[in-house]
Request: fold
Amino acid sequence: MTMAARALPPGAGALVSVALVPPATRLSFRGGPDAAEACAAAFGCDLPRRACRAAATEARAALWLGPDEWLLLAPEAETAALVAAIGAGLAAVPHALVDVSHRQVGFAIAGTQAATLLNTGCPLDLDPAAFPVGMCTRTVLAKCDVALWRRGVDLFRLEVNRSFADYVAGYLRVAERGLG
Amino acid sequence: MTGEHRLARGGRVDRARPLRFTFDGHAYEGCQGDTLASALLANGVHLVGRSFKYHRPRGFLAAGAEEPNALCTVARDRARTEPNLRMTQVELYEGLVASSQNSWPARGFDLGAVNDLLSPLLGAGFYYKTFMGPRFVKGTTLWAKLFEPVIRRAAGLGVPPKEADPDHYANRFAHCDVLVVGGGAAGLAAALAAARAGARTILCDEGAEMGGALLCEPDATVDGMPAAAWVAATLAELARRGATLLPRTQGFGYYNHNFVALAQRLTDHLPHVPAGAPRERLWQVRAKRVVLATGAAERPLVFPDNDRPGVMLADAARAYLQRYGVKPGTQALVVTAHDAAYRTALALARAGVKIARIVDTRPRPAGPGLEAARAAGLPVTVGGTVVGTTGSLRVSGAMVAQASGTGATDFETVPCDLLLMSGGFTPAVHLFSQSRGKLRFDAETQRYLPGDPAQAQASVGACAGSWGLAAALDEGSAAGAAAAGSGAGRSHAVTGDHAGEGGGILGALPHGRDPARVKAFVDFQNDVTAKDIKLAVREGFRSIEHVKRYTTTGMATDQGKTSNMNSLAIAAGALGRTLPEVGLTTFRQPYTPVTFGTFAGAARDDLFDPVRRTPIHDLAAAQGARFEDVGQWKRAWYFPEAGEDLHAAVAREVRATRAVAGIFDASTLGKIEVVGPDAAEFLNRLYTNAWTKLAPGRCRYGLMLDEPGFVMDDGVVGRLGPDRFHVTTTTGGAPRVLNHMEDYLQTEFPELKVWLTSVTEQWAVIAVQGPRARDIVAPLVEGIDLSAQAFPHMAIREGRICGVPTRLFRVSFTGELGFEVNVPADYAAAVWQALWERTAALGGTAYGTEAMHVMRAEKGYVIVGQETDGTTTPDDLGLGGMVAMSKPDFVGKRSLARPDLVAPGRKQLVGLAIEGRTVLEEGAQITPTADPPVGTHAIGHVTSAYWSPTAGTPIALALVENGRARTGETVFVPMPGGAIAARVVGPVFHDPEGKRLNG
Amino acid sequence: MLLIPCPFCGPRPELEFRNAGHAHVTRNPAVDDPAWAETLFFRDNPKGIMAERWRHVSGCGRFFNVLRDTVSDAILASYKAGEPRPDVPLPGPEGEAPRIGAGDEVAP
Reply:
């Protein structure tokens, strides 16, 4: 975890807050439809077939990031068990499962101004009609590639590669000043 | 009273809220709602600056964004000093400090005005003729020493502040169904219709107040309300319906696929700027539909001395009078080719301004304006013209003649302190043209109008050539409704309209005076006269684009908003062609100047570009590391101890590593996990090497070519299992290599069952290199037999280190026994710390990228991008043995048989041994003789050069033609201090047998 | 900034994409040297409709093809890598958004 990201302020009040999410298990799952189906059974959460959609249970989530690519999220302690379970469940199905838990850092962006804050640097239409709750995608935030997942009307999760976390934290801090 | 020329009532200013300000150090008072221009006019100040080239006294020409003359600098403090602002758009606030530009020592007495006397030398193309061109008048020392420096210093715009901009600039990406640019009658009606239809609507306007011309229509009503009240009601409804209303926002650029850029001014109008508030916001809007309601700008008339302070556009004078309650003069002469000026004359007369004369240049004008003027007893001269003006710092009279009998003496001088002109109106088609819509020339009205739109867009109101309030409102409403997909708009009940007005003229008025002695300005900001344009044509320029550049007409910061049509017409006349034949110059973004800060936004200082740090960065910094930039990464460069410079530190790091051991942060190495049943086959096709027979647990150095056969990357690849490889790439090459792999996988080899995942940031990498490396690593590792037999050079094992998972490589980039410890990034700092403590205890060192480079060069290991330049083949590097030509195909294989790649005489990698202590310059050319004549073909170049602490001499790697065959020859590296002799040797300077690797 | 229809994700801003040159360049290593040189180095530069490759690099990561009018920049179609070039006419003056490649489809 990087220094500046650790030093994030609690947020400028009720309108928007930016916080780091706790460490998590992150698995990159790649494969065809049959593999995705088998993976869902082993993982305990659907892998959405629809583009740019996430499925979630209480403790797990699967984010569609590409036509053969999902990001699986789960609690931190479950990495080894999940890798083993999915590996066992898909022994006969070609796929790729790669642990990327430490590759990324997650941010939670919450508040009525959350979408506006993101739109200072993200060129997507984040109106709930265009980017509804449950939608996810890789996109850009300022000069950084990110994965963006709308968990609620006013709640987003941002996943960034760890070496960009300082940049993203610094950027959001500056961008927040420009909301007024 | 807020200025002696302020009317007692009328306009949209708040006389109860006076505002004090200074201009050029003089204190004045204006009031809330004023612009700097209207406040100065209320105080009788017309002389507000000097012109760009001739330093002629200038006043306000316009009242809006098109103003070419009245530029000023507004200063809040030393850093917040903004030059080149149009005074007509600077909103007044309490305490505003503004100054004129381009005048020294003062507006009223300007030494630069000597340029006006030098003007015979400063005509069209003077830059080319004097500063850059052949010897024209430049040959004399008088010119070179006196005039040129004076002109260079005197000509120019305002001075930017020298300090860094302390303000913050915001950015916003926005999307909407309907974007309306321009908040006048047409734009408001369009936005209202769109919003009523439920469309997501954004409305922007450059002014502080929405309403455009409706704000200067005290006598008009819309839907039974006074025009200004209709504006207020409409804005209220738009806000209620959730439309985004952006006043002070200039739509300045229209790009592909309905992407429109807006610049919003947020704080420049405030007397006290809230701390940290953004100064401006760039809106990057993607609109499903765009409605352009950008209005029209009045054209000046071109006649001699049409630039004196007090000479103003007629419509601007009406705006000052009716919007700001300011009388811009006491005695006005109006010269016009358009009916609208009569409305101005009547309004001024009603306000108590004496109308000295209305000169209509048209032979047979008609219409209600003319009749009303005559009925009001205003003197009208029909078919007249103005052939000059009198006065110096303010116009004092107009020389009025009959158009048919023009001559220098055949005129009557009519006293006036305000000369209003109207050449007609030019639709503001800038954004339409930027959207790549083709303009069409309307011969009847002599205007360029929007043709068929090229994007999902409509132009309405004056920018589309319509005239009058009802037309603007109804067109706007129809376009707004259509853009929202909801059928027809509505029509508006308007009284006090002026629908029938028309007229206009293009080009210069005839004057018959000695053209050598008078200046009739076309482009006021760049001081371009009618004569200059004619001269350019006489000198052979035919293309309007060339005429524009040669004369600089339309190239000032106002982009010729008031001048382009007149200059086109003058050029067309001189060329004997019609306007459409001459064509138009390009309308470029931005419509009005936009500050650099707005474009930069947050991308400055630490956020200019992402700064990427490894998980070990903070520990390395605590150990005293100096860092270097490698792409976006910060990498530890060297670890100086007290008193050490780079060279001393590197020499120590190299010696300690080779004698004991060193640890090195290699986390930035690119890493790609290649997984799937076809993983080995995929690597067979992407690398020159063969992978099928590489056993799990073993590594191989991989060489990657691009399709033309040149080395594009290299790295160690470890096989973790039958279907899983851990591929490493160069630091800088990581994204490029992954993109290259994905490209071939997706488009050439989609049948392969294999997937690529970037794990660069998942795994931190700590290299432990040196004869004691095993002793450092061993006690920390669990589950891996580190013995030389069980874990040989070029092997990979999975296990644990310091209690966390590791992928442990036995590899070396130094030539020593070496390991590369991969651990999940969160654990890297702890593992580094443990390894460092053991290393230090044994007398080893931490080393940085510089020592790494030296050690690999001592071993002759290449760095892609340093020993290669995109035209280097494996054989050029002496790596032909890495190429498995027996494979049926791999990327680059076919090209290795290309004639150029097998031709003799290619440059080959060699070492250079140098006597003495001089380290060669990387990139230096290599020649066969010490002092070759100029033009000699170089036989190669130095790719890497270092002082080798191990050899105790300088070493270098080089690419030299037929290099391997030249082994033992002496070549030369010509340098400014004389050529340096070097002996061609093999590229490996240290342990050529490789014994140390296998310890 | 172009609005590029990704065949998987739908219309997205150009910022998310990287151009990857001409589409439908056939890689056939069996050809002779002059033909191979054509494959590697020679490209036409059409005024009008051009088939070009893009990668949704800051998105789903897919390479795909686009038909773009180089005069107006109007995008007339987008289609997956490996699919044949569709036959489309030049668009009307309104510059309507492309009808092919509207995105939001089910993964294969």
